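Tokens for chain A. Residues wanted.
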């Protein structure tokens, strides 16, 4: 049991496109398609599914942060919720508890693309399997992406909320960059990229930051347009939707 919760890293690097990675990606896509199908054909089932995913996410988050606090002793380089997915998870949890659509939508827009990208290009802590962080990474991002899919299908954002989220992107970047440069962290990968590291290292840092910011905004807008289209499909006849799948 102590091995599962150990604090000392061992230099482990997760291998992309390994069998476990491929299985995870298949599970992710299957879950998204299943949720969209239920949204179009049997929305009543989404409520208990959403409740189950939400409870599982809370358990996953409590487990992870308990480990950060009691095992690592709260290291600000690793434990702060300044990755987009971590912010999204907490936004969804508090959005549900406080019945705030704005928090839910913020979590949805940050969490859906964040979860997909994180699982497509996994960057795990350097702990060999089995370790708590291995499981919280994959399980947490799966739960997040599926919950975000439900939220963005069910909740129709207003223009004011979309503008608010774009403003929060600015705030998120400023706070995160300040923390990164003061603690030597790399939240939101604002100091260096975990993929194509040597290539991005050749770019002047201010251009790298501008590129990351641009990608965030574009992904947010594409997510908005994609789910707006999916919601509109519900108004078409069921046969037309089934032909998509």
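Reply:
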């Amino acid at each position: 049991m102590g091995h599962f919760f150990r604090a000392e890293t061992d230099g482990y690097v997760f291998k992309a496109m390994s069998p476990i990675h491929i299985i995870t990606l298949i599970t992710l896509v299957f879950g998204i398609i299943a949720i969209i199908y239920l949204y179009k054909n049997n929305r009543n089932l989404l409520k208990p599914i959403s409740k189950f995913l939400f409870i599982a996410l809370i358990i996953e988050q409590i487990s992870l942060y308990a480990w950060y606090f009691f095992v690592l002793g709260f290291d600000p380089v690793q434990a702060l919720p300044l990755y987009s997915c971590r912010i999204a998870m907490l936004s969804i949890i508090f959005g549900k508890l406080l019945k705030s659509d704005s928090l839910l939508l913020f979590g949805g827009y940050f969490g859906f693309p964040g979860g997909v990208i994180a699982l497509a290009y996994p960057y795990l802590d350097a702990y060999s399997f089995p370790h708590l962080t291995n499981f919280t990474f994959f399980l947490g991002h799966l739960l997040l992406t599926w919950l975000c899919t439900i939220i963005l299908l069910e909740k129709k954002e207003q223009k004011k909320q979309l503008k608010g989220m774009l403003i929060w992107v600015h705030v998120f970047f400023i706070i995160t960059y300040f923390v990164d440069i003061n603690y030597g962290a790399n939240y939101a990968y604002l100091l260096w990229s975990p993929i194509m590291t040597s290539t991005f290292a050749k770019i002047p840092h201010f251009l790298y930051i501008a590129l990351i910011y641009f990608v965030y905004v574009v992904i947010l807008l594409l997510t908005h347009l994609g789910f707006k289209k999916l919601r509109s499909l519900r108004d078409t006849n069921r046969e037309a939707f089934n032909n998509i799948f």
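The mean pLDDT is 89. The CA atoms of residues 63 and 136 lie 8 Å apart.
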